Amino acid sequence: MELPSYVVRRNRVLFRPIQPKSHNLYKSPKPPFFSQTPSPTHRTFSSSFLRMLTNSTFLPATTGVAPLDDADFSLYFSFLQDDSFLPEMPPAKRARRAAPEDSDPRSESDDSSKAPPAPPPRRLWVKERSRAWWDQCNRPDFPESEFRAAFRMSRGTFDMICEELGAAVAKEDTMLRAAIPVCQRVAVCIWRLATGEPLRLVSKRFGLGISTCHKLVLEVCAAIKSVLMPKFLRWPDDPTALADARRKFELVSGIPNIVGAMYTTHIPIIAPKENVASYFNRRHTERNQKTSYSISVQGVVNPDGVFTDVCIGWPGSMSDEQVLEKSALYQLASQCGILKDDWIVGGVSYPLLDWAMVPYSQRNLTWAQHAFNERIGEAQRVGKEAFARLKMRWGCLQKRTEVKLQDLPVVLGACCVLHNICEMRGEELGREEMGYELFDDEMTPENGLRSLTAMNARENMARNLLHSGLIGTGFV
Asked: Which residues form a coiled coil (predicted)?
């Protein structure tokens, strides 16, 4: 029987008669799909199997048999239709949906000529939170006493701060949500500083997210530092202001030419991840019997308790003397001479300098020296009481803060600026804020006498106070 040289079925070559070779029939690999040249194994399998079939009784033993067509091969080689030999065909395309019988082609043309319908409004992915408390506080008829107790200031002062910070903290509405009003942004920051509440409680009170409240606090504090600090916390360069400060301090202490009282306090922090030993406060740890970490805040105040200079952020392990040497005030006073004939008074933890007057720290003092320490203590108390009001007004300074260490100086600077605004506008503290006692351990510096001129000036002040009768009753 004359057979074709090859047979093509379903877009692949099934066999091609060549010289047979001995191969395992059952381990033949699957032939490649639509290959123009069949694999050798497949050719061997096809030719060998064909010879077996031609010599078997499956085919009729008559001569002159016509070549097999596609129908015959489908009969004898039906095993080739097994799924393991069929190629993976791409999925058939989904049939197009038939148009309804009653559809009118004219209506379709009319619809195509019309403008496409407007898309539905986008949903705002904002969690619904209650803002009842803030809406009540923001009402004009809200009691002034309750507003003052909540925000440590009157509504007039609050509105003034919002007006000053409006351009710096205002945001525009977007397609997704409306911007938070300026007054609410400022209120979140001031409430957080005043109460020191955790962010999750601030979030529930104002109806905002926790991360949003944290971001608002940092943004408003940064705006206070850049916008309000140059206006409300600055060194007095006006001769009238300096003369007024000298007069008030002399009325308090009897010592002339005093323009400021200096004090340093510590703000507790969470143990940082880096340089932990630098922020370890040994004095607070020994006094509280609890491991304490802190950063320092050095400030100079005028007779009214308003800060005129601050130095914030140095580690708590540094002494007051070291913090003073790192401050900008030390550089300006020592090198630039901004304090020509004036004095800044401080405690025994500061050194005696050409511009810094401190009390006597040695033992066995004379009556004149006792009198001087008593009178200079009155001037020094102005600075300590200002820091006490600062911590009483802003409760976040009384506990370990959650603010990151790199953001903490900005927050503390904002507290000092807001303190000045409240002091200038006569905002008094309520009974709930009163009663905080300030503890800061003072250490005597190793080299406390650095200026011979200041030593002579202090001796003259002590004698004048003794002879003028300006000594207290404690030494009579």
From this structure: none
